Amino acid sequence: MIKTGNIFKKLFLSYSLIIFLSFVLFGLVFIYLFHINLYEEYEETYTHHYNQVKNHLELQSLYGWNNEETAASLESALNQKGFSIIVYNSDGAPIYVPDDTVTAVNGIDAELIRAAVAGNMVSEGTRIDGSLSYLIASPLTVSMTDESFTMAMIFYDLDHEYRQMVFMILITFTITIAFAGVILWFISRKITAPLRDMNNIAMKYAKGDFTHTVNVASNDEIGQLGQTFNYMADELNSLEQMRKDFIANVSHDLRSPLTSIKGFLVALLDGTIPDKKRDHYYLLMKDETERVIKLVNDTLDMTQLESGKIKLEQENYNLQRQLQRIVVKLEPQLTKKNIELEIISDDKDIYVFADPARIEQALINLLQNAIQFSAGKAKVTIFLEKNKDEASIRIEDTGKGIAQEELALIWERFYKADRSRTDKAGTGIGLSIVKSIMDLHGVPIHVESQLGKGTTFSFTLPLGKNKDD
What we know:
CATH class of the largest domain: Alpha Beta
CATH superfamily of the largest domain: PAS domain
Number of helices: 11
Radius of gyration: 52 Å
Number of strands: 13
CATH architecture of the largest domain: 2-Layer Sandwich
Number of domains: 3
C-alpha cells in the first residue's frame, strides 16, 4: 500500500499502480508470445519455400538446366518481400542469390552457414548490416543428383516488427490507463466521500456540536461505519444532554439548601430572628445541611457505581436481621410521618448471598422512597419469600403512586415524578443507585404502580447458607 496522508490518494495511486503493473506484465507476456509466434511463422514459411526450391533443383537435374536457367527459374522464389533465400553449394559458397541481397549475403555470419553445410539445422537471430534479422538454414537434399546444397532464409528488419508491436502496446496502454484513471478517480472520490464527511463531522463533534449526521447511501462496510458513526453521535448527544441536566439538577438541588442556610445565617446575625425561635431555625439549617450532605454522598455513590470502581464483596448473611436493623434506623422518619412498617416473612431466618452493604443501601433508598411518597398514617409492607434457590423481596406502599408513562423514567438520575409535590428530602438519585446496585448483582428489579393506590418494588437474591451450619 502506498504511504500517503490522504486515503483518496492512497486508493487512487494504489489502484493505478496495480493497473500499471498488470499492463507491464501483460506487455512482457505479449512480447514473449509474439516472439514465439513470429518465429514459428518464419519456420512454417521456411518449410514452404524449402519444398519449392527443392522442386526447382529437382527439375534442373531432370531437364538438365544450366546454372543460368536454374537461376531464372528460382528468381521469383528467391526474391520475397521481407525475406530472401540463398542457396549454397557443398563448399558453403552462395550459388543462387537474389539480386538485391548481395550486401546481405556478405553480412551473414559464416559460422552459421558452415554449421548448416555440416548438416545441422540452424535457427537463430542475428544482426546483418546493423539490422536485427532471423536466419534459418539447413541442408537441402535433392533427389536424382549427387550434388549437395544448403538453403538459408533471412528475415529482415525485425526491429521494425518489434517497434510496431511495442508501439501498438503503448498506444493501447496509454488509452486504457487514461480511461481507467478517470474511472478510478471518480470511484475513489465516491468511496472516500463518506469518510471525508465523517472526518469533517468528527471535527464538529470534537467542538461539542453533535447535531450533524453522516449521509449513509450504501450497505457496505463504509455504510455500516456511517451508521455506527450516527449511532455514536446520538449517544454522545444523549451523554451531553445528560451532562447538562446533571449539572443543572445538581446546581439547583445544591443552591436551594445553601440559599436557605445563608438566609437563616444572615437573619441570625442581624438579629431579625428572635432568641426564642433560634433553636427552630438551627434545626432547619441542620436539615438543609443534611440534605446537601445526602445529595453529595448520593452523587458520589452514583458516579462510582457507573464507573465500575465499586466491587461487590458478596457473602452469606441473614437478610431478615438486616431488614430489622434498617427499620430501627428509619424509625425517626417513620415516627415523623406516623407510618407503619411491617415485615412479613414465610421463614424465621432467610440467608442470601450478596453484598450486605450495597443491598442495605438499596433497601434504605427503596424504603425512604416509600416513606417520602406516603401520606401520614399510611403503611409500608416488606414481603420476604423463599422460591427454590432464590429469596424474593417485595416492598409495597400505599402512597400516591406513579403514572404508567413515567415508570420507565424513574431509574434516571435526578428524575422526580410530580416535581411540584416532591418532598425536599428527595435528590432524584436514590432509585438510580438502586438500579446500579441490582445491575452489579446481576438481578433485575421490577416496579408496579397505580396512581392513588401505591407502588411495589420487587427483586430477588440468590439464597445463601447459614454461617452457623
